[in-house]
Write a structure and sequence with these properties.
By secondary structure, the protein is α/β, with parallel strands linked by helices. Helices cover 33% and strands 25% of the residues. The protein has 18 helices and 27 strands. It binds alpha-D-glucose-1-phosphate-6-vanadate and cobalt (II) ion.
Length: 547
């Protein structure tokens, strides 16, 4: 083995987005691309003497990237790296290991819900010692470093055998290969009422879990089938594959269509849909939950979890507070108000929840993008949400449809939808945003499509803990009845721009609680198109993905 310092030059565009650096896999595989970014991380966090966690979602290039990162960590003087067997860790499991072992942070290899494979996407994200995604100040410093980098350090030698559990050495660094599932499963067992869930399954309750050939398969089989007694075969697409078997591992009604079809299939003499369905994404931090014949929107899921969390042992003492990203519906705010606890509204991206959780201000957090989690770790956590739902269903003895009907009857319903317009030329998208940004400040008091604007702005957030201000986090237009829409550009895509249009409208009930969301939102959708001129700028009348 030889320690080498290699001369390199900055590569443009290594700027982390909403969740780490995401690029086409072939870009990441290009000369010195991964090396430059990883060296930039190690330079910023001062790797010498530190301990890190390393793992990824198993997508194509995960295994190669892990070997490079380990050899660079050793060459940069890191003391120890804890790595999941075969370099696999779900994002929440990695967050847990960072905290459990009191390490200095971790490197997560994933492009989350983006497709994988040589023509798909790859990503690298740095998480800090609290287990959460690095805050903006850190990602900005990493980016700045990448623009001036001149060399990187790496051991050259044989690959480590990462299929072998236990301790190995790489130069002066220790590498501990650990079971990716064990510690995470133990944590879940502490948080939830496993006996109640076990009894539920023993009583004939049937579930379908679609792991979409991505990372949660082994976790879900161990927890749901082995520990909780769900029928063998409950988890489908349970083997993580480098290309996710061609699936798009994004748990929403479009990409998890097979699950939706099963959950909505009409009963016959020989078939009844399962009682409960769920899916998770590439790296296991997202979840979709579905009841028999009923889809639960992520914003509603967050509200239901908040309203019922006390049924789980970990939350029996109540919640300190809740937080949601700004585009997420206000359904959870209503729950917080009823419970007399604080609620916070943050920019998009899990990194903004970290300070609130570290300061003990919030227990539960969520985003409309199929992400929910709690202070048990510092990432959103797909299987955690599935288990909390199971815990609630077991303790309430109700179906998903009954839980939702009760919830809406009590709190009213925040009709909600997100429309995504994908692959738009970046300059068109920017031009549309610039025009709208210039107009929002003068909108209050005007009528759009007959709806009176009460307030409109470009969302800025001052972190209540450290006071750091994040600007330009989405344009929002709020009408006098509380309906609203939000427009922002995605920060996770790798091709062109993705325009996200978020739509919300509240119905207090008792009438009008069971409309089709697109129908209920039609006037708001129309207003958004009129004001933003989406068709004029993008040439697109209708969205690619509706969730
Ligand atoms: C999207 C979601 C955001 C989420 C982020 C990372 O970001 O909207 O809510 O936190 O993905 O999720 P954007 O910038 O594309 O809207 V994951 O599961 O991809 O780490
Ligand atoms: Co994800």
């Amino acid at each position: 083995m030889t320690l080498r310092t290699i001369q390199t030059q900055p590569i443009a565009g290594q700027k982390p987005g909403t969740s780490g650096l995401r690029k086409k896999t072939r870009v990441f595989m290009g000369p010195q691309y991964l090396e430059n970014f990883v060296q930039s991380i190690f330079d910023v966090v001062q790797a010498a003497g530190k301990t890190f966690v390393l793992g990824g979602d198993g997508r194509y290039f995960n295994d190669r990237a892990a070997q490079v990162i380990l050899r660079m960590a050793a060459a940069n003087g890191a003391a120890r790296v804890i790595v999941g067997r075969d370099a696999i860790l779900s994002t929440p499991a990695a967050s847990h290991l960072i905290r459990l072992n009191k390490t200095d942070g971790g490197i997560l290899m994933s492009a989350s819900h983006n497709p994988g494979g040589p023509d798909g996407d790859f990503g690298v994200k740095f998480n800090t010692a609290n287990g959460g995604p690095a805050p903006e100040a850190v990602t900005e410093a990493i980016y700045a470093r990448s623009t001036e980098i001149g060399q990187y350090h790496i051991w050259e030698g044989q690959d480590l055998d990462l299929s072998r559990m236990g301790r190995q050495e790489l130069g002066d660094m220790v590498v501990d290969v650990v079971d990716p599932v064990a510690d995470y499963a133990a944590l879940m067992e502490r948080l939830f009422d496993f006996p109640a869930i076990r009894a539920l399954f023993a009583g004939g309750f049937r579930m379908r879990m679609d792991s979409m050939n991505a990372v949660t398969g082994p976790y879900a089989v161990e927890i749901l089938e082995n520990r909780l007694g769900a029928a063998a075969g409950t988890v489908v697409n349970a083997t993580p594959l480098p290309d996710f078997g061609g699936l798009h591992p994004d748990p929403n009604p479009i990409w998890a269509k097979a699950l939706m079809d099963e959950m909505f299939a009409p009963p016959t003499a020989a078939f009844a849909a399962p009682d409960f369905g769920a899916a998770s994404d590439g790296d296991g931090d997202r979840n979709m939950v579905v009841g028999r014949g009923i889809y639960v929107s992520p914003s509603d899921s967050l509200a239901v979890l908040a309203a019922n969390a006390q049924l789980a042992p970990a939350y029996a003492q109540g919640l300190a507070g809740v937080a949601r990203s700004m585009p997420t519906s206000a359904a959870v705010d209503r729950v917080a108000q009823a419970m007399g606890i604080a609620h916070f509204e943050t920019p998009t991206g899990w990194k903004f929840f970290g300070n609130l959780m570290d300061a003990g201000k919030v227990t539960l957090c969520g985003e409309e993008s199929f992400g929910t989690g709690s202070d048990h770790l510092r990432e959103k956590d797909g299987l955690w949400a599935v288990l909390l739902w199971l815990n609630i269903l077991a303790r309430r003895g109700q179906s998903v449809a009954e839980v939702m009907a009760d919830h809406w009857a009590r709190f009213g319903r925040n009709y909600y939808s997100r429309h995504d317009f994908e692959g738009i030329p970046a300059d068109r998208a920017e031009a549309m945003m610039a025009r709208l940004r210039g107009r929002v400040s003068g909108l209050a008091g005007q009528k759009i499509n007959g709806l009176l604007v009460a307030a409109a702005d470009d969302f800025a957030y001052a972190d209540p803990v450290d006071g750091v201000v994040s600007k330009g986090q989405g344009l929002r237009v709020i009408f006098d009845d509380g309906a609203r829409f939000v427009v922002r550009l995605s920060g996770t895509g790798t091709e062109g721009a993705t325009l996200r249009l978020y739509l919300e409208r509240y119905a207090a009930g008792p009438e009008g609680l069971d409309l089709d969301p697109q129908m209920a939102l039609a006037p708001v959708i129309r207003a958004a198109h009129l004001l933003a001129d989406i068709a004029g700028f993008t040439g697109r009348e209708s969205p690619d993905v509706v969730t």
